[in-house]
Amino acid sequence: MNSRHESDSRTPLLLAVVAQTLAELQRDRERAPPVTLDSLLDRDLGLDSLARVELLVRVEQAFGVALPENTLQIALTPRDLLAALDRALAPGVPAGDGNRPPGAAVRHPASVALAADEESPSEATTLPEVLDWHATVHGARTHIVFLSDAGEEELSYAQLKAGAARVAAGLQLHGLEPRQAVAIMLPTGPDYFYAYFGILLAGGIPVPIYPPVRASQIEEHVRRHALILENAQAAILVTVPEAMRVARLLQAHVPALEHVLTPEGLSHSHADAAPVTAAPDDIAFIQYTSGSTGNPKGVVLTHANLLANIRAMAQAVGASSRDVFVSWLPLYHDMGLIGAWLGSLYVGSRLVVMSPLAFLARPERWLWAIHRFRGTISAAPNFAYELTLKRVTDAQIEGLDLSSWRLAFNGAEAVSPDTVARFTERFAASGFTPGAMTPVYGLAESSVGLLFPPLGRGPLIDRVRRDPFVERGEALPAAADEANPLRFVACGTPLAGHAVRIVDEAGQEVGERVEGRLEFKGPSATAAYYRNEGQTRRLFHGAWLDTGDRAYMAGREIYVTGRVKDIVIRRGRHIHPDEIEEAVGALPGARKGCVAVFGCPDPASGTERLVVLAETRATGEAERDALRQAISNSTVDILGEPPDDIVLAPPHSVLKTSSGKIRRSASRELYAAGAIGGHGQSVARQLARLALHALVPQARRLARAAGDLLYGVYAGAVLVIVAAVTWLAIALTPKPARAWAMSGVAARLFFRLIGTPFTVRGLEHLPRSAASVLVANHSSYLDGVALVAALPRHYRFVAKRELRDQLVAGTYLTRIGAEFVERFDARQSVEDANRLATLPAQGASLAFFPEGTFTRAPGLQPFHLGAFFAAARAGVPVVPVAIQGTRGMLPAGERLPRRGAIVVTVGAPVTPATPVGDAFSTAVGLRDAARAAISKDCGATAS
């Protein structure tokens, strides 16, 4: 009977028994961890010794056998249980019910539905679950191919998970706590992928920022990113050694930034990361908007937001594992991070990725990567298609085959009708089909995507009459012979589950072909800007979010016309900058893509002055005069009137975002300050100014650190003195109740001497005379001190057995009447649990820390069943006690206390439904009720 076939036939029922037990034990979780034959019963599934006893009973009942006596001790996984079943069901071994603890009811698992093999991680609720699914199902499959001058580097799903786990362990060794932000300032490469998921696995929040581009703009880069890091309260910055100088400057300006680390330094940890379970509503990363219209704002995006957006986009474009996504998009931008990488990760398609710098240096590399890897999907802003047209010669694309390219997304900035037409025409000879060009629209506040056109339709261009549009916002169709119409490209319709509307300034929806503000809502929408209530209030209009863009609707298609803040209102006319910028950029002598058009208030006329700022390399006066005249003529051709001012500036004068968008507002500010075209500051002067400005935050940081150190030394000294005197007194006290009372006096004195506010609430809930089982959250070594200080009556602490043999701790705990239990020997642990269950019946009240241990991580850890089993067996109430503030005063791994305040809240007792019967179910119910009460009052969430 121990054949491989028979063993395999038992596997589904065994896994069903494990899954049902786990579901009942962890019914407070939205989704139980996946159960496989190699899942560790304790570490992966969270089954303590009592839960494993219950599992063995159920396995015995389901298969009608008595398992070997040592099964509890040696069975670490379901596979081990399967081996024990094989031995028990071998010929000549009698069947039996086995030994089960009193009150352990049996529930047959026949009704448990077994999960069928999935084709995609459709049940995943977080990004780590998506990665886990792929690593489990096809871990060796190539996920990413990274192209560089050094060659190719392939990355499988299993390698990504392993590399991320190493980074997670390194981050936790450097003190990262869950929900702390970690900035990623890395170039495109394997380290970026490891860092992003490593932060998630460690419980942190990734914050992508872009590396410095030019030394001449280092001051603006540091100031801008210091604002981002300050807002995010980033504790750690991960970057490459080459950017360490900039990273140190950022650290000097951001007091919360404790560590600057490299990927290599993070990955050298040999420790395992402490598992941190993410929830769908946890933040998956903060996307700081590019700042094209003002200071950066941190868009909060949860796992639920991202997965909703990725699934909706995959549905809209028919993405699958058969696709190949080729991308050079920067990973610090949502189009590259979510659209290219995380979207490919979810559907299981291969991602071929290269550095943005590689594309900018040689745009033909992008096209040849599509050719070589038979890319089916790629994406880029409009400027990239224009740059490719301008820079790629016919000789460089001889033999190029783009016939596999089915989706060429064009988004992230205004889409030019001329660009899409010329690109399609130019590369038709290389197999590029007109239907592949796909203009789309999205924004960070909607994760990344919002509007997509029908598959294969190609660009839809609307020609509208100029005067009605600029004067009244009416997008009336232009006649075929209209001389100077406006043209807009359709972006499609909303993704499934999302909705858009177009409203006027009063918030009322407008009709067909009337321009207004574009608003949206849907599951991809952010809930807020990070730590920015003012901007969040401006973002929301009831249930709708303001995109900041203007648009109109025609035939269900949405046509985006421009940014609200960028529109120039000149004598009542609404002028859109994009058209003028494109026309001026095409003039000889002007730098294409380096033109900014904006309006400046003119108090004299009560309207705005139209300013054209254009970069040029021309230095001769005659050449510059000719360019000014050409700019004026081009503007007259478009608007019927010239601009009010034309400014010619040297290269790199027009400010841009990290994604290449023109920063018109920032350029307007420079213009108003008279700072355009001036000589740039030297790098040395910029560094000196940054260092000077960093002195104040550095001085504050040092002063605060010195004060914290002095307080910690004082509080630590007080603790040692009070503890030593108390220990000596208690060592001579034979009565545990008296020793408890002395400990309470000493504990309250300690808190008073170190200036810690100590508050106790709900003492009326403590049973006055009857026995009870007290359970409290555990987050610091100060928890025991806080309980002794708070409780007016004697409780027997339940402590780990290894403490009993220690001179200081063992003597103290023994004197106050503590009970000791085994943690590592499973059978002895069960025997100790049974012994503890008899004590309340004898009138003894017990105090447990059911988490068993504590970490730096906030949130409640899983509760062991021992305390609740004892209460269920004895039929006594469980008293939940929430301790708040101790983790902040003395976190794990630190020896000196910090300033803080402690609140101890005694909750209402939870009484077992019946004193006898199904002890396991009763214990689980008591645990869930007590855990909920503690979670509510301790200021932490369950992990």
Q: Quick recap of the structure?
A:
The chain has 943 residues and is of the alpha/beta class. 39% of the residues lie in helices and 18% in strands.
Structure explained in plain terms:
This protein is of the alpha/beta class and 943 residues long. Among the domains are: 108 residues, Orthogonal Bundle (Non-ribosomal Peptide Synthetase Peptidyl Carrier Protein, Chain A), CATH 1.10.1200.10; 231 residues, 3-Layer(aba) Sandwich (Glycerol-3-phosphate (1)-acyltransferase), CATH 3.40.1130.10. It has 29 helices and 34 strands. The strands form nine sheets. A seven-stranded mixed sheet has the order 2-1-10-9-11-12-13, sandwiched between helices. Strands 28-34-33-29-32-30-31 form a seven-stranded mixed sheet, with helices on both faces. Strands 18, 19, 20, 21 and 22 form a five-stranded antiparallel sheet that branches. The longest helix is centred in the last third of the chain and has 49 residues. The relative contact order is 0.07.
CATH-derived architecture of the domain at 708-938:
3-Layer(aba) Sandwich
Identify the strand order in the major beta sheet. Answer: 2-1-10-9-11-12-13
Q: Choose one word for the global shape.
A: elongated
Low-confidence stretches: 93-118
Strand count, sense and barrel status of the largest sheet are: 7 strands, mixed
- Gyration radius, rounded: 33 Å
